[in-house]
Amino acid sequence: MAAPFSEPARKILVKPFIDIPGLNLELMSRTNEEKLVSWSPNYRTQTGISLSYAGLIGVAASAKSGMSRQDETAMGKSDYTDIRVRLPWRSISVEVGYQKLKGFYADNTQEFSPGTSGYLKRPDLSLESKYASVVFVLQPNRYSLAAALDHSERQLASGGSFLGAAHVIDTTFDNGSEDLIPTELHPHFGSEAAVNDGRFFSATAGGGYGHMWRFGETGYVFTQLLIGLGFQVGRSRDEQRSFETNELAGMGKFDFGIGSNGELLLGGLLISIDQTSNFTPETELAKRNFMVQLFAGFRI
Question: What is this structure's pTM?
Answer without folding.
Answer: 0.90
